[in-house]
Amino acid sequence: MSASHDVTTLAELDALYSPVNPTAILKEIDRIIPEYARFIEAAPFVVISTAGPEGLDCSPRGDPAGFVRILDEKTLLIPDRRGNNRVDTLRNLVRDPRIALLFMIPGIGNTMRVNGRARISADPELCASFAMRGNPATTVIAVAVDSIYPQCPKALVRSRLWNPEVQIPRSALPSTGEMMKAIDPAFDAETYESEYPARMERTIY
After folding, report:
1. Mean pLDDT by 10 residues, the chain (205 residues)
2. What is the per-residue DSSP string for the chain?
């Protein structure tokens, strides 16, 4: 890839693309209308993007559909569950409140995008209201919506993401244990993998 073809100015970028479709501008608004709310309420999965002094983070979150709560037309509440305790997303938000969300629904090509600013709450009553299997959320991310808009399905259509005909078995790729062992030859991949199903069930909430 030759650096001589790098695009380094907005003028160069604009010369490569047609003018923006007016609909792409019209659909971006600053509040959650009922039609957009229905999409969020049906989504069991959201990708969260944040930025901080150490760099960027893109992290998945998932629960039964409706787990992201719509408090009002400008506010979303996202429970933070048990994980590996890296808390990269939360570390970023403590220092830079900017946040971007991408909601996805199995079988649906459209996604819903949200940009906003977040704060982290450890309010016991709020966290308890998001309890699953008797375990409250550790914290709750409150997102103040700056902009929200649906994304067209082209990317999911091209990738055939929801098409079962292109799904591959998990065994066709390296397991987590195998990847860890490639980094550290002393890592006990066999034990890690054999214990994982019980560990997942015990710690998912």
Report:
1. 92 93 94 98 98 95 97 98 91 97 97 98 97 96 98 95 95 95 96 93 90
2. --GGG---SHHHHHHHSPPPPHHHHHT-BSS--HHHHHHHHH-SEEEEEEEETTEEEEEEEE-STT-SEEEETTEEEEEE----S--HHHHHHHH--EEEEEEE-TT---EEEEEEEEEEE--HHHHHTT-BTTB--SEEEEEEEEEEEEE-SHHHHHHTTT-GGG---GGGS--HHHHHHHH-TTS-HHHHHHHHHHHHHHH--
